[in-house]
Amino acid sequence: MAGKEVAAVEIVDLVKEYPSSFRRKMYRAVDEVSLRIEQGEVYGLIGPNGSGKSTTMKALLGLVAPTSGLCKVFGCDSMKVDARQHVGFLPENPYFYKHQTAEETLKFYGRLCGMRGKQLAMRIDALIELVSLQDARKRRLGGYSKGMLQRVGLAQAMIQEPQLLVLDEPTAGVDPVGSRQIRNLIFQLKEQGVTVFLCSHLLEQVQEVCDTVGIIFNGKMVQQGSLSELTSVDSHTEILVEDMDEATLAKVREVIEQGGGELLASGAPRRSLENLFIEIANQCGEEAR
Amino acid sequence: MSKIGFISATRISVIAGHTFTQLVRMKVFYFLVVFAVIVLASQFVDMSTLGAVKAVEQNLRVMKGAGFFAMNMFSVILALSATALLLPKDIEDRTLYTILCKPVPRLDYLIGKLLGVVALVTVGLLVMDGLFCLILNIRVEAMVAEQADLLTRMGRSAEVIESHAAAIREQGVTWSLQAGVIAVLLKAIVVASIALLVSTFSTSTIFTIIITVVVVLIGLIQAEARDYFLQQQSLGMSSPMLEMTRWISLLFPDFKLLGIEDGVINGERVSWSLLGRVSLAGVLYAAIYTVLSWFVFRRKEL
After folding, report:
1. How many domains does chain A fold into?
2. pLDDT (tens digit per residue) in A219-262
3. Closest listed residue to residue B162, CA positions, set B151, B172, B171, B173
4. What residue of B is the nearest CA neighbor of A84?
5. Contact assessment for residue B258 and residue B76, using Cβ atoms and an 8 Å cutoff
6. pLDDT per residue as tens digits for the range A71-111
7. Hey, which residues 73-112 in chain B have their CB within 8 Å of chain A?
8. Interchain proximity A113–B102, CB inside 8 Å
9. Which of A103, A144, A248, B126 lies at a C-alpha separation of 20 to 30 Å from B219?
10. Would residue A11 be called left, alpha or beta, if left means φ above 0 and alpha means ψ between -120 and 50 degrees?
11. How confident is the model at residue A43 (pLDDT cuts 50, 70, 90)?
12. A12 forms bridges with which residues in the sheet?
């Protein structure tokens, strides 16, 4: 394993061009993208469809060769097989061999990573429990729902206990409860020191789990930085108060105005629809039990 | 970071085993029923108008011919369709992403896929061979008994009866017959490796199948074409086609080099040295096409 000073991911001036239909002109999918992910960091890459997120990920995984620039994983060139020893990848909408069961799928990927016998069997048991597929472990994947396939995908990505997890839309097709589980899992992995590089359209999710965020548009990295740097509004101050009556609030408003400021909004904060759903789902689950 | 070996027998065996299971679960072995019907039907061919022993030998030749034709056809169809299907399907379903994102060199993946198909064809051929030998042997022994009875009634000596029986058994289950089956397997392996090469640059299964069939057809007729143009040249008629056939022989496989079944059907013995040469040619062809596949596939953008 590489030393602590080596970045988990280092992409420098990455350019990826594809030939257009008649090969007269090259289409630039990624345009001089640079990013660095430290070990143990959770990095979110966001951008609209076709902005170059998946191509950047593919270059990092050695699935496409950069036109120019370089991609390194723990200091190793991403085009080399060695770079993939400590990497787990969950593609967007993963498809697996339908003839296999979840258990066989994990066994197959584990054996490809050189795992054998008891060590592999124990790891499979742990992962199946982690992604809540105990009841379906012996069923063929042909009969799995999209969300269940996503969970198998996540388990296969983690089979060899990778130090870097690359997740492309990890919660696509997963219900809110499953989505919350995946988010909790990312937090858990972060605590264990695993580096996570994720692409997602769900900005709220990225905001919740990522330390650093990169925004990519038309193949170019337009903004990058820590989440607090990117999302804080310097001219605003947020105060959250509990059990305050109207009279005290009026006094607060007065004090603010005396100080030259302006109270922009006040009222009861709203919880997200997702939080409400999770709460109800948990309640229903407890009642059913 | 530890080094991953350029090629690993363990990884290859994992991919080969998985490919074999995948194909078996696609229920490809159902074709064995059709094979059994062909072999059983060939039993009912009767050439008794040719006269005693000659008719017996001819009947057995017809039976062996039908058996080898069916084995050749099924093994080649199986090798071609299975190989042509695997790689494009893995790319289309994106299962290839998850495999190549593990520490798996692309050469290991290709060899594993090819060996999985080879294992499937080998098992299919073993079953076909076993069934074929069983039916052929039953037929031979029935003919031996029938001829012995006929010759005894005609008052022929035991020596004559024995020599007739030996002549009939020469047309039955022999080691040469097994050498013929090995040649069938080698042809299927070469076809699979050609399909593998084509599928590394093709965009669909149908394109892979068509191109591979064209290559196989050229491979089947190129020796005859070369012989024909050589004959023309010896008669003083020079043709640029002769030079072309030489170039074709460099690019396409010559399946005549692997074809020993015709001799086996006629009851000829196959020497070990001939079998060795045929095996070497088959393995060499498969190795060349696999290396070429790797050259194309190693930088393929997924």
Report:
1. 2
2. 888 888 887 777 777 777 778 888 888 888 888 888 888 888 88
3. B151
4. B103
5. no
6. 999 999 988 888 888 899 998 877 788 888 999 999 999 99
7. 93-95, 97-105
8. yes
9. B126
10. beta
11. very high
12. A70
Q: How far is CA B200 from CA A94, B84, B216, in A?
A: 22, 10, 17
Of the residues A204, A231, A258, which one is the last residue of a structural domain?
A231
Question: Do A220 and A259 share a domain, yes or no?
Answer: no
Residue A153 corresponds to which amino acid? Answer: G
Give B18's contacts in chain A (Cβ within 8 Å): 97, 108
What pLDDT, in 10s, does the model give residues B42-83? 766 665 554 555 677 788 888 888 889 889 988 999 999 889
Nearest CA in chain B to A94: B94
For residue B15, the chain A residues in CB contact (below 8 A) are 112
Task: Give the whole-angstrom CA distance, residue A272 versus residue A269.
Answer: 10
The reply to whether A280 and A204 lie within a common domain is: no
CA closest to A77 among chain B residues: B1
Domain positions in chain B: 9-297
Shared domain for A181 and A251, answered yes or no, is no
Residues of A in contact with B99 (CB under 8 A): 109, 112
Nearest residue of chain B to residue A158 (CA atoms) = B102
The residues facing A16 across adjacent strands are A30
Q: Do B3 and A82 touch (CB under 8 A)?
A: yes
Residue A141 structural domain: 9-231
Instruction: Report the distance separating Cα A119 and Cα A106, nearest Å.
Output: 13
Q: How far apart are CA B45 and CA B58, in angstroms?
A: 10
Nearest to B104 among A93, A100, A112 (CB): A112
| Strand partners for A87 | A164
- Tell me what the pLDDT averaged over chain B comes to: 85
Among the partner-chain residues A63, A87, A166, the one whose CB lies closest to the CB of B302 is A63
Nearest residue on chain A to B99, judged by CA atoms?
A109
State whether A100 and A168 are in the same domain: yes
Q: Is residue A32 part of a domain?
A: yes
Residue A187 located in a structural domain: yes
**pLDDT one-digit tens code per residue, B132-191:** 899 888 888 888 888 888 888 888 888 888 888 888 888 888 888 999 999 999 999 999
The CB density around residue A34, as the number of other CB atoms within 10 Å, is 14
Whether the per-residue pLDDT at B238 is higher than 80: the answer is no
Q: Is residue A238 part of a domain?
A: no
Q: How many angstroms separate the CA atoms of A214 and B95, rounded?
A: 28
Q: Looking at the domain assignment, is residue A1 inside a domain?
A: no
- What does the DSSP assignment read for B233-270? HHTT---HHHHHHHHHHHHS--GGGG--HHHHHTTPPP
Q: Residue A152 belongs to a domain with what CATH number?
A: 3.40.50.300
B94 contacts on A by Cβ (under 8 Å): 91, 93-95
Q: What is the pLDDT of residue B94?
A: 83
Contact B255/B285 with Cβ under 8 angstroms?
Answer: no
Q: What per-residue confidence (pLDDT) applies to A47? A: 84
